[in-house]
Inverse folding.
């Protein structure tokens, strides 16, 4: 495997919102965060110049790299041309069927420095693969503020729809945070690496994904409003809410103060009244 690395200077400008990780220690820690993968398939989202790719290639059985930038895709294809277990896909992650990369029912893991401007859309694709029972674990780097929302517990100021959606699909661990100077060119924000152990809770809480996701989005629509007011604005009738409202739930409760179990109980009760 070729070891040549492109040198990045302060004048390098990102394309497609790219900020390349140049902190060697951070690259190693991200690769290690996946755990033991010698017999597993790993998918890397946005490998860039291959700083993490070269470490993953030494660790896993199969590595699929999804790179949208054509110049970077060509660079990586040449660099790893002699590694039969490394496959480079010049593709859009939002148009890629992750589950089709590996033969079912084999599970896979994901690593990715997620572009800030499409983080939510990529997370939805990961959660889709988790619901299909195919994605086991993901180690992702996201903007610090997004990471705080994903990991926030109920009752905290950061808890919201993204928190609930993430925690319906995975157990979230914050690993470490990197400053702008860990990247070239440096972004204007700090970045946090999270590990997501996929464990969808829909069967446990007896809710369906599509309906419950719409319910959560409605409940969190405006943080200053109570849950009941948000749900009425979304079309739930006052009579149905009064009938379904759990006795232990305060009438003026806001969605961010409620655990997923409570939200699921109200959703189930409302479903029976419709």
């Amino acid at each position: 495997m070729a070891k040549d690395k492109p040198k990045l200077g302060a004048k390098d400008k990102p394309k497609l919102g790219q900020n390349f990780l140049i902190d060697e220690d951070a690259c190693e820690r991200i690769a290690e965060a996946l755990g033991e993968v010698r017999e597993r398939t790993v998918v890397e989202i946005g490998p860039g110049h291959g700083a993490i790719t070269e470490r993953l290639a030494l660790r896993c059985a199969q590595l699929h790299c999804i790179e949208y930038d054509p110049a970077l895709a060509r660079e990586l294809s040449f660099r790893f041309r002699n590694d039969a277990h490394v496959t480079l896909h010049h593709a859009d992650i939002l148009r890629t069927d992750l589950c089709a990369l590996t033969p079912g029912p084999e599970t896979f893991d994901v690593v990715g420095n997620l572009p800030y401007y499409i983080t939510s859309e990529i997370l939805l694709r990961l959660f889709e693969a988790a619901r299909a029972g195919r994605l086991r674990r993901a180690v992702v780097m996201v903007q610090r503020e997004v990471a705080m929302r994903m990991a926030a517990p109920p009752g905290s100021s950061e808890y919201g729809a993204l928190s609930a959606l993430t925690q319906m699909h995975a157990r979230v661990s914050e690993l470490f945070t990197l400053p702008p100077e860990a990247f070239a060119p440096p972004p204007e924000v700090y970045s946090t690496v999270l590990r997501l152990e996929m464990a969808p809770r829909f069967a446990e809480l007896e809710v369906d994904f599509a309906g419950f996701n719409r319910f959560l989005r409605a409940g969190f629509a405006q943080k200053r409003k109570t849950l009941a007011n948000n749900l009425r604005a979304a079309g739930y009738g006052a009579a149905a809410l009064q009938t379904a409202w759990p006795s232990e739930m305060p009438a003026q409760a806001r969605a961010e103060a409620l655990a997923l179990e409570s939200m699921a109980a109200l959703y189930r009760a409302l479903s029976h009244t419709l």
